[in-house]
Amino acid sequence: MSPEVAATTTGSGGPDPRDGATPLLSIRDLEVTFTTQQGSATAVRGASFDVMPGETVAIVGESGSGKSTTAAAVIGLLAENGRVTGGRILFDGTDLTERGGAGIARMRGRDIGMVPQDPMSNLNPVMRVGAQIVEALEDNGVARGEEARRRTVELLEEAGLPDAQRRAAQYPHEFSGGMRQRALIAMGLSCRPRLLIADEPTSALDVTVQRTILDRLEALTAERGTAVLLITHDLGLAAERAHRIVVMYRGEVVETGPAAHLLRDPQHEYTKRLLAAAPSLASRRIEIAKHGGGARVAADDLLAVTADAPADATRAAADAVVEVEDVTKVFRIRGRGLLGRGTDFTAVDRVSFTIPRGTTTAVVGESGSGKSTVARMILALEEPTSGTIRFDGEPVGGKDRAAEVRFRRRVQPVFQDPYSSLDPLYTIYRTIEEPLRAHGYGSASRRRERVLELMDDVALSPSLLRRYPAELSGGQRQRVAIARALALDPELVVCDEAVSALDVIVQSQILHLLADLQHRKGLSYLFISHDLAVVRQIADRVCVMERGRIVEEGTVDDVFDHPQEAYTRALLDAIPGRSLDLGLRAG
Amino acid sequence: MSTEPAAQAVVAATAPTGPGGRAGDEGASIWRVAARRLRRNPGAILGAVIVLAFVLVALLAPVIAPYGPQELPGRAEIRPTFIPGPSPEHLLGLDRYGGDLFSKLVWGARASLVIGVLSTMLGLLGGALVGLLAGAFGGWVDTATMRLVDLMLSVPSLLLAVSIAAVIGQSPTAVVIAIGVVQVPIFARLLRGTMLAQRGQDYVLAARSLGLSRRTVTMSHVLPNSLGPVIVQATLMLATAVIEAAALSFLGLGGGSPTTAEWGRMLTAAQNELEVAPRLAMWPGALIAITALGFTLFGEALREALDPKTRKR
Amino acid sequence: MVRLILQRLALLVPTLLGLSVLLFLWVRALPGGPATALLGERATPEAVERINSLYGFDKPLLEQYLTWIGQLLQGNFGTSTRTQVPVLEEFLDRFPATIELTLLALVFAVGIGIPLGYVAARHQGKALDHTTVVASLLGVTVPVFFLAFLLKFLFAVQLGWFPSAGRQSPSMVATHPTGFYVLDGLLTGEWDAAWDALLHLVLPAIALGSIPLAIIARITRASVIEVQSADYVRTARAKGLRPPRLRRRVVIRNAMLPVATTIGLQVGLLLSGAVLTETVFAFNGIGSFLAAAVFNLDYAVLQGFILFIAVVYALVNLAVDVSYGLIDPRMRVR
After folding, report:
1. Chain A residues with CB inside 8 Å of B28's CB?
2. Nearest C-alpha of chain B: how many angstroms from A466?
3. pLDDT at residue B5 tops 80
4. Which Gene3D superfamilies match (chain C) (predicted)?
5. b/e for A341-351, b at 16 or more Cβ within 10 A?
6. CATH architecture of A1-111+196-277
7. Which CATH superfamily is domain B50-76+86-306 in?
8. ipTM higher than the 0.90 cut
9. pLDDT at position B75, please?
């Protein structure tokens, strides 16, 4: 479908900023090509869409969809080997592709601003934060000297940075991630651009910080009438924040439309898949189904096998596959220098919980909450400082080598990063065969059969057996990691952020695979995640961790529907799309 | 807008169809990928050609050289102010003592290869032993060993080599041992560092979770993955060894007579003849530089080819 | 900042202590023991025995070590067996010459290396860049003393542009209050002497500075290339920074961080290179003296010099770390 047609099918309701105005940014048939050693690759082809003055437009897509490339082309900051090879980028009537490098350079900051993705790497580490905004004001001729410094403090204040006067004189390393992103927002808006490009502005931040940052960005741009081009992988977030959504897939714009309209009535097959896969939306659908009445929870959304029939509490406790009792883990941080004294850091603080057999127990928390340390202790890769962890009544890890080998066979991990969880020197066959060989599983031909069986279980083609991890996609690698974990028929699988590094659709596929395997093999899962929307879909029970402690624990329904703790509520509120009406009540 | 994965993703999507158009299910291991990238790198090819030529000349010295290393066929032709230049009998002319320069250079290649390989092997083995020792025992042993390593690295390497050779005495063996010992702390620190980095990788945790013993995990995962940087370092060290051996010879620590067929020694002897026959210095000097350049080019290219950061391209 | 310096100075103590133990054992490990070291080739069994009892080499090792350390702390580094002059005296006589030489070599290496690396990075992939890369590889692989020969042969012997040996022309009459000949000439107003001393320094400094120059150029190039593609540079461009300010305040400042460390590491290379270069140019500094000591196995000199060079090396690296803190605010906290 042509984007223009999609764009004109504007939905009813709500003031449409497009009425009667000419677009501020108009992209027509944009084509961007990268030249690499292997030849050229077209990253964006035939993309067209408009951004009206003051309007927020979100480009949604997975990695490799060309969404960031499109934005980079607009602001003239394509990587060295990238070129606009076709189409036009009209900004306020002038074609940026004809203005050349120097022409676009003059517009940056003043006409088009940018808020980058990773706050950790986007500030100049050797310069004071304030000075970095002052220099932008000066070079764009907005203000100079004392006036620029005064303006900088104002901007930082507006961006929600407390104690801005003092903070302006500090260096980036003295800022937290959220504070840095506020500084970057102040920087992007400092010269009052008419268009702000925000590329995944919060995906590197903790969930609770994400929301406040986005709120602030929205308020500031609304106040100034700045148009925003928001780049995101999260359809829920896009729908919540943008007037209109542009869906990109493999370099092409597949669908464009008003946010609400696109959610309710997706036209393109890819949009539908994205809609079904986005955890934030799935979680919202579950919520609507439970409380709005009428609609039923789609089987696709709720993946936990036992959620519909909550297990009898006492029975569950009796049949716990893992019991964590009063576990504390203290790390000693080495002091600097010869006489520097070390300090203690309590990563996990008196944590107790159980994992009922055959179910999925999730541990959620933000970075630094200690959730991964819990996972490692249950895997007996890390020893608790105090407290006990029992697997099937026995201490984890086993008393002696023989007991340890028995334990290892029954408890297996799946890690977050599919790039580093496979030995780069091992073929896929060797990777999956390794546990079989290590535990003396049958003859070579028996092992080969078993490897093929496992490949089939995780839906991988046998043609991949002689390949190396570097030749596989992220999703394929994670399937290999799951196959390796399942090789010895374990009872408990510990998934440490197992889907966090994957794109939405692949993520959804892996989640389905995990749910399916649990169903078929009666596995128990410990699911470590920072993403509550995912947890909502896959888990039966959930423990919320904050700074080493479990602050709330219960069934998924209890915790999500009746959060007791302020922290849990903050986490839940931070799931994008919580305010969305997905049009399900009607259907 | 951090990195743009699009271009890479597109290229990556085409990669599994087989490197170099090879059909079938055969995967591309890191070493095979590295070999392919080396073949595309002109610097690597130049380096490899130099190294290969050097090794061949050194191995085939008895065949190539018309005279033995100690022979002085042109003794009678030497005058205090005249050393005969290139002639049909003596391709590159004679040296101060009447030796055939070409033959001596060929034999010198053999001497350099022996010194380079032996000393680097010594450094590698010693470094591996120390590094593994520190890594295996950890704690107290590790701290003490690494302090010693730091200590050795706190003295400039040539001075360290000089002082070691000075203790052993003036001989080619002293040179080999001195250069080898100087390399020990370098290899030890490198090996320990890469192994420590490997230990934290998820695939090592996964291997431990499979119930593999510490030894198996080290031997089958950690060590093979630590090999790349060590091989690169060893290649670069061969270059350093050739240069340092010449320097030690220059300082008179190489032993032997001034007529010894060894590049450093020849170069040192030639400094008194600069005005009479500059070629006596030019040839060995240029050969040392070219040989070291070959190993350096190849080592740097290998480092690049094995670098995971650039590997995905 | 002050705490950092103090901490680093404190760390220097065990390093030096460890080094002194190694050097102490080193001389004891000699075939024939330390007496042979002291006597050199005049070591007859009777003389060895005499020296052993005279210097207490027959006492327990620990006692010997403590005595030796005590002497070191009093500035007694022993006597050169070759010249029969106290090591410290020999050393102080020659140190200014070597400082002059290494400083000029460093100025040469930094002054050309950094701009060269920067320009190469700006023209990445072009002919200029490739030339720089190849030249810098060659710079590292050409033996220092061979380069010294070449320079001497070409510019001193053949062309006669520069003197071929020594620190000062034999015909030159000059006073030397500090021992730094160039400085002396400037202080006393003997301009011809200063100029003469400088001319003597040029060739050795170029030879000595070649390897550091190559290394500094390479590191600068790599660092600039890396910084140019950093996220914060892109963001600085996005906020509309003009190119001059972008280069000066963002690219160069960040790219210089690893270069500063590298410059510190070159001091070790310069000091060991001085041993070779000074010998070729008959330049009377600690390098040529050390080379002569090696040749004659003059252990007292070697022992003292190596310890001294290690101290200088450590102090220079401390200075580099401190200056690093001045450029990089991340190092200032704590």
Report:
1. 467-468, 470-471
2. 5
3. no
4. MetI-like
5. eeeeeebbeeb
6. 3-Layer(aba) Sandwich (3.40)
7. MetI-like (1.10.3720.10)
8. no
9. 74
